[in-house]
Structures are given as C-alpha cells and as structure tokens.
Design a protein that fits this description.
alpha+beta, two-stranded antiparallel sheet
C-alpha cells in the first residue's frame, strides 16, 4: 500500500498518546468520524470498515495489516491524499501510479503535518529534502532536540519515515521506518 505517511503518523501517535489513537479508532468504528483536538473531523474511508486482514486488494495481494491499522490509515489517506476530489479505496491502493492518480495512494506532506497537529495538538514538521545536506541535517537535529515531531520524506520524496531518535554517523541519519 501507499500508506507509509499514514503509518508514520500512526506510529507517532501511538508513541505520544495511545489514548488519542484508541479514541479515534473507536469513533471511526462506531460513528464513521472522529472529532479531533482542533474540532476538525477525521472521517472513515468508505470501504475501510468492511476490509479486513487477509482480504484481497485489486491486484490480488493479501492485506497484511490488522483492522485498526486499516481503519486509521484509510481515514488518514481519505484526508491527506494527493488528489482531494476523489475517495480513498483501501482495496485499490496498490502503490502504483494508477493508485496515486485515483487518490488511492500517496499523501500530501503538508496535509499530513496539519492532520498530525489536529490530532495531537502539537507542532509537527515535515521534511522533504534529502538528509545528506548539512543544512537539512542541522535543521533536523534542532527539531528533534527541541522535542518537535518530525515526519520526513526520503528516497527522492517517495517514502515517509518518522524521525524519533536522531543519530548521525558517517553522514547518515538513523530513523524509524513505520511502514
């Protein structure tokens, strides 16, 4: 699936406040929406409440995530997908170009950070530059050391990771890959 941004956000929320995650999953499962800290709503993706571990996606692969991951990540994708005038369909998310163009894969980094702030009430940073440049590493060090939550894009802005503990050795950044 193309839900690495949603998975990174899920990991960060679980690390910071499992109660937020539990409330969101319960609200989405019962009411198909959850009111967030900033009073905005996170809505369940239409197909996500009836899609389960082991179900087949449109390309024939078997779903490996547990139901709470499917529900949360699908709701996130419904809100932060790159094509906002579409509906996210978990069964059609095959991480391919067609999935991206139809709104079933890939997340807008700024929308993802904004949603993270809506859920947690804390400031989030999204880094979209390579970790190799020294100025970007310096910014990353400052953000992590000051306690900011950082979701970063790597591999030419094609994959999201969560920067939780920062270790720079031999000009490389160590991070948590939640997806």
């Amino acid at each position: 699936h193309g839900t690495c941004g949603a998975a990174s956000l899920e990991y960060t929320i679980l690390q910071n406040n499992i109660g937020d995650f539990t409330k969101i999953i319960a609200d989405l499962s019962i009411n198909e929406k959850s009111v967030l800290r900033d009073k905005s709503e996170l809505k369940a993706a239409p197909s996500s409440l009836n899609f389960h571990k082991g179900d087949k996606t449109s390309d024939g692969s078997s779903e490996s995530r547990i139901d709470s991951d499917i529900i949360f990540q699908s709701a996130v994708m419904q809100r932060v997908r790159l094509t906002p005038f579409t509906t996210y369909d978990v069964a059609a998310d095959n991480s391919d170009l067609k999935s991206v163009l139809t709104g079933n894969s890939a997340a807008n980094p700024w929308s993802l950070s904004s949603l993270a702030e809506s859920i947690t009430g804390k400031k989030f940073e999204t880094r979209t530059k390579d970790f190799i440049s020294n100025s970007t590493k310096n910014d990353l060090v400052k953000d992590v050391e000051s306690g900011k939550n950082v979701i970063a894009l790597i591999n030419n802005a094609q994959h999201y990771v969560t920067v939780t503990i920062l270790a720079i050795k031999d000009n490389k950044v160590t991070y948590r890959d939640s997806a």
